[in-house]
User: Fold this.
Amino acid sequence: MQLRPILSSLSHHKLTASLLMLQVALTCAIVCNVVFMIANRVEQVTLPSGVDEAGLSMLNSESIDKSENRLARHAADLAGLRAVPGVTAAVAVDTLPLGRDESSYGTCASAEDLAKAIAARSMMRDGLCVQPAVYGGTQGEVGALGLHLIAGRDFRADEYVAGSDVHVAILSRALAEKLYPGKDALGQSVYAGGAKPIRVIGIVDTLLRPHLRAPEVNQYAMLFPMLPNDGEVTYLLRSAPQDRERVLRMAAEKLQQLSPERIIPASGMRTYAQMREAYFQRDTTMIGLLLASGFGLLFVTALGITGLANFWVQQRRRSIGIRRAIGATRGDTLRYFQTENFLIVSGGIALGTLLAFVLNAALMTQYELPRLPWHYLPIGALVLWGLGQLAVLGPALRAAAVPPVVATQSV
Amino acid sequence: MFAYYLDLALRSLRRNKVLTTLMVLALALGIGATITTLTVLKLLSGDPLPQKSAQLFYPQLDPYPKDQPFSRSGKKLPWLMSYIDAMNLLHARKAERQAVMALSQVKLTPQGQGGKPFYADGVLTTSDFFPMFDAPFQYGAGWGSTDDESRAQVVVIAGFLNDKLFGGANSVGRTIRIEDHDFRIIGVLRPWAPQPRFYAVHLGGRDYGKGEAVFMPLQSVRADGMTPNTVMSYGPEHTDMQHLETAQSIWLGLWVQLSSADEAPAYKLFLGNYAQQQVALGRFQLSRVGLWDLMSWLRNEQVVPDDVRLQAGMALGFLLICVVNTVGLLLAKCLRRSREIGVRRALGASRGAIFLQFMVEAGIVGVAGGVLGLGFAELGLWGIRHQPAQYASLAHLDLSMFLFTFVVALVSSLVAGLLPAWRACVVAPAPQLKAS
Assistant:
């Protein structure tokens, strides 16, 4: 395939060709960044919580009776909830991964670190200490959540206390590795919010915090054998996934039966899946919008390519006829238009690559977006080349169908 | 003459139906996306109190220790104030009006009817809140500063709560149980919810939405032990929620109304003096202060969600590509019509006439794109109204955006038409005629 005739013909359409190139370049720049943003959001939305989410549901209960013994109330409620047919586990918890409500304690790996942090009047300075989220709950929380214990053991019944004055804790793996790099965290003592050592008795694999922050601290979390002792409590129920709705309904009825002195807000009665969906609702909306705009852009650009190619074919009917008459085959004509399109799109991609990084840099200063990884560019290029070829196929086939006899006709 | 160009343009557009449709469709998509996102952006970055915003100011002090600043960079001033500072500034009465406020989730129990208790958003504030923010009363009125001091058990309720509890009737004088105490209703507001919810921004409230249900005197409900949504401690010890008034914690927002923006430097001077005084007393380590007018405050705190700004940017990028697309297609079209242009020129049409003819053609594409784009925008806003976002119910196309749609459509199509029309009018007639 000779490039020279194509190039010289393109030089006659400098303006239209460069407009098309500009359009391809803009599309390339925007689509690369859009795809990158989609990938970021998808990663966020699919973040594993460490919880076995499928069969979980929960409801909140807020006590109106200020005089009642809360621990006894919770115990009685749990006994009632476990009797609901279909419930395989029921625990009372203060908060949940992705539950938004978070309490966190400044936590240090050793008493010396704590002393240093206090002297520096800052828990975070020099990375001495971290701020993990703390989960409290009744016995069986690890099992009910379906957390994966990779070392050590679960809490024993005699380790549960009503206040935050606990002696043992279960850490997430990320937190254990951060506090005790290269060491076995089991048996070590952490210092959380006080001078008393808290012994690490277990490590769970993945455990997300209630409220996400930066990626590196999202899994800083630990469990305390801390019985919920507030008027407001969350009951976590495990059942077969198809039973969740029924179990929730029956559980709410059961709780009202056990004590009508409470509010069970409808907004707090939901499955874990619904809570997760609500947590990421903004992100899923954005993914939808980004997808729509990405496809919209590609569609409009394809439209532009097809439209222009159509005109060029009509405009050059006569010269196509002449070329056919002097020996060019249908295949030659077809390839001519395909190559021409390939050249224009390639020019656009070259410019687009540059624009993509400029746009990315602008987005990085405006929004918290990481740098565009280079591998998005070849993918973007492939997509645009494919799109260009697809868009030009129709007009090119029409060009190939021009019979040689056109050469002899006067216009 | 214009009618003739219109006729020519319509003929030309009709000749290439598919292409015209595609051009209009692409432009309409870009316009629809742009108008949808700009409507939301305008809504979210609007002026909550257009008649008052220039007079409303938000003062800031910095009680944080030097080596443990409020923000990581140390540049931002604390969002809220401690009780002592807020009350000192309130009682100094250096502005025309001033009110402190906090937000709280409160438990309401309707009287009689065996009503079930429920939770609602409440504002804990002082008497100037209503006149300062131009809150309109349906029945009754707000409380006075004497009620603040005497810890009166009175409450102003929002219209929607009055509808819910009393069927919209005049409920002034009736009582409602808030937490564990009875409060007398002294006023009912008309529907009132400035957007964005500027005074709720850092108080743990929503940035947008229908607003709070009850408004109570701060000191009265604090005496009952009600706690605010947001409390941040700047001291070494844990905040005791029962003794917030003396704790080293910030939890109150202070808004002041000055007679005009010219008074702002004087008020800032007063703030600076106050801060220096506190430094001298050893309460503060830093004497820096801030004073924002309402709109600058909203901009500075970036109340508009990042996602919304990103969407608007994306839509503009989309429109840009649609315009480039239209330029290309119009250009190709006009180049194909060189002969027609040559004939028209030879018959005496001037360059200006040819230029105008092609601009009219582009304008028609624009108007058609605008009409279709309006449809897309309505569709997009309908979609937004069905999102569970805080501002969803507010997303409507107003008259100004309706007109703006056509401005965008016309401007973008005429910009797109410039290059093709210019190319068309510089076509030399002779060679075109000779070629045939």
In short: Residues 2-45+306-435 of chain B form one domain.
